[in-house]
Write a structure and sequence with these properties.
Blueprint: H1 2-8, H2 11-17, H3 24-42, H4 46-52, E1 55-57, E2 60-62, H5 67-76, H6 95-108, H7 110-129, H8 132-144, E3 147-152, E4 168-171, E5 177-187, E6 196-203, E7 216-221, E8 223-225, E9 231-234, E10 237-242, E11 253-266, H9 272-308, H10 332-364, H11 368-404, H12 415-422, H13 432-445, H14 450-465, H15 473-497, H16 503-534, H17 540-556, H18 559-567, H19 571-574
Parallel strand pairs: 3-6
Antiparallel strand pairs: 1-2, 4-5, 5-11, 6-7, 7-11, 8-9, 10-11
Helix pairs in contact: 3-6, 6-7, 6-9, 6-10, 7-8, 7-9, 9-10, 9-11, 9-12, 10-11, 10-16, 10-17, 11-12, 11-13, 11-16, 13-16, 14-15, 15-16, 16-17, 16-18
Length: 582
């Protein structure tokens, strides 16, 4: 983490340039404290949460043993408020620091962490869109963690297609609304950790137009709030059931019924989807960070096992004399799996921390051009952060099980729990197919590739600076070559899509993965460059990062050749009804 923040990205200087008063020692102090909390308090509850799960008792969800005490410690330590605004009682830390903390929380206990993560999103959404009165009512309590938040979009009949939602919001005489309808797959929709839960709900007013143009956003608390800001009686919000899931057993995923519940409009009528996108995009970036945390813990478990497991003889050049077997880490294929995990986690960390810096630059920089560039990069790359990183986390968790062999398939070692917990990531916050379509159609083709060209120009400009440095030729040539291939592909896809309405859907997933490989290649090249410039001052850790970067370019980046071919495949073959008729 420190290597990425301080040596590769120079985060403190970047933040200071945006007017944020922070230094390296402050950043390190906060993340060291968070790491201690995660290891000492949160991580020991991971297996407990998986084993015991949540229980619905009446209309209240009882969380696994120890979850409530850990949450109380989390609040007492001020951790929910670290990157919230000072005016709401927050610590005022940049989002970059908050992302590092969220990664550690996800590694330690993803189920428990979900009770905290959507609260941060609700805070940001209300801060960006709510009236001053609503901000005063909700933001200090969300910042402190005294209250938690949710995001209520999906309904049983419509899934991702929010234009079909039917939850209704009827105006009342006092300026509030009465919300009625059913929402499903609501993470942390009901629990016993906090005194109130703040639901952000998409609904329709009686005279709203059809489709997404008729959606409004409402804030609906679990308990009504009096004039002094104190929670009172139960509002008309009820948990009808909790989902029986493959993983994340300690996280309550709820079916919520809103029955004439009192809510208040956030922003303008019929502009709710735009307002909610603040939370949705934050959740997509958060999914990437969660995936990074899960990737990291999958690798840590596999690496520990591979070092300790003595089984079979290694290749002769790696054998330990006078013993019957060797650690499996000396098997080439085990090395391949471990280094693949490390490539995904290290590259994702470089990428996601850089994106977190863009969030801070967008918010705080005094330079309009810097803010605009940061916004462009976030708009372009958020789908990649969500989809590419989460798919790689699933790959990594699967590899972790494979490294464990038979031990990976049983519960004792935790590898199978990591896989089960990780598998949801490509599904929620918009499936990865949806993210791929968003990237290609809305973020690349819709503006003639303007934003994408900005990113490619940044990478290509960096690659040109490596000219003449023989030790960086591997990285420079690959970046320049791949940039040309992707540029030609984008031009062709734009032309083909004009006459083929299936073209985007056929090519989108391969295109997003291609961009993901390219993005991580850029950041691994920067990491390698950082190490090589240290010369004799490089430590064993630095040399490890250089070795992983070389592995990524040698073993993983060649996958882009097949992606380039598949992205050009004939849509008629994919859409041929004969292939699925039976």
């Amino acid at each position: 983490m420190q290597f990425v923040l301080h040596e590769v990205l120079d985060a403190a200087a970047t933040l200071q340039g945006a007017g944020i008063d922070i230094d390296i020692d402050t950043i390190d102090g906060v993340i060291e404290g968070a790491g201690d909390f995660c290891a000492r308090v949160v991580a020991p509850l991971n297996t407990v949460g998986d084993r015991d799960g949540c229980r619905l008792v009446g209309d209240t969800v009882v969380t696994p043993p120890g979850f409530k005490k850990a949450y109380d410690q989390y609040v007492a330590g001020g951790w929910p408020a670290v990157d919230c605004d000072v005016e709401h009682g927050g610590g005022g830390m940049p989002s970059t620091v908050g992302s590092v903390i969220k990664e550690m929380l996800a590694s330690a206990n993803p189920s428990w962490t979900l009770y905290t993560s959507l609260s941060a999103g609700a805070y940001r959404c209300l801060n960006a869109n709510a009236s001053e009165a609503l901000k005063r009512r909700y933001l200090p309590n969300l910042a402190s963690g005294k209250w938690t938040g949710t995001m209520c979009l999906t309904e049983p009949h419509c899934g991702t297609d929010l234009g079909l939602l039917t939850t209704r919001a009827v105006p009342a005489d006092d300026g509030s609304y009465r919300i009625s309808g059913t929402k499903m797959f609501i993470t942390s929709g009901e629990h016993d950790l906090a005194e109130n839960i703040v639901h952000l709900v998409l609904a329709r007013t009686p005279d709203s137009p059809k489709g997404t143009r008729g959606i409004s956003l409402f804030v609906v608390p679990k308990r009504t709030i009096d004039s002094a800001g104190t929670p009172g009686d139960r509002n008309g919000v009820y948990c009808d059931s909790i989902e029986n899931k493959m993983g994340l057993h300690g996280s309550a995923t709820c079916v919520l019924r809103f029955d004439n519940a009192v809510g208040h409009l956030v922003g303008e009528v019929n502009k709710g989807l735009a307002a909610m996108f603040v939370m949705m995009n934050g959740a997509r970036l958060g999914t990437g960070v969660q995936a990074l945390g899960m990737n990291e813990v999958a690798n840590q478990k596999a690496l520990t096992y591979a070092r300790e497991r003595i089984q079979s003889r290694a290749p002769e050049s790696r054998r330990t004399p006078n013993q019957a077997a060797d650690p499996i880490i000396d098997q080439p294929d085990v090395r391949r799996m471990l280094l693949t995990q490390k490539s995904w986690s290290g590259g994702s960390r470089l990428f996601l921390y850089w994106l977190a810096l863009q969030v801070d630059l967008r918010k705080s920089s005094a330079d309009p051009s810097v803010r605009e560039y940061a916004e462009d990069m976030l708009s372009l790359l958020t789908p990649v952060a969500k989809a590419f990183v989460s798919d790689r986390a699933v790959d990594s968790a699967s590899l972790g099980m494979q490294v464990h062999g038979g031990a990976g398939y049983i519960a004792d070692y935790g590898a199978e729990q990591t896989f089960r917990d990780t598998r949801i990531l490509p599904i929620y916050e918009g499936t990865n197919g949806v993210q791929s379509h968003d990237l290609l159609q809305r973020k690349v083709l819709s503006d003639g590739g303007r934003r994408f060209k900005q990113f490619v120009e940044m990478v290509s400009g960096y690659a040109q600076t490596l000219d003449g440095r023989q030790e960086m030729d591997l990285f420079r040539v690959a970046l320049i070559t791949l940039a040309g291939e992707i540029d030609t592909l984008v031009t062709d896809l734009a032309r083909w899509a004009q006459d083929d309405d299936c073209r985007v859907g056929t090519s989108a997933v391969d295109f997003l993965n291609l961009v993901g490989y390219y993005v991580l290649a850029y950041f691994w090249a920067r990491a390698a460059d950082t190490v090589l410039q240290l010369g004799d001052q490089a430590t064993d850790f630095h040399r490890q990062q250089l070795a992983i970067a070389r592995f990524y370019f040698d073993k993983l980046l060649p996958d882009t050749f097949s992606l380039l071919v598949r992205a050009r495949s004939d849509t008629r073959i994919l859409m041929d009804d004969a292939a699925i008729a039976f």
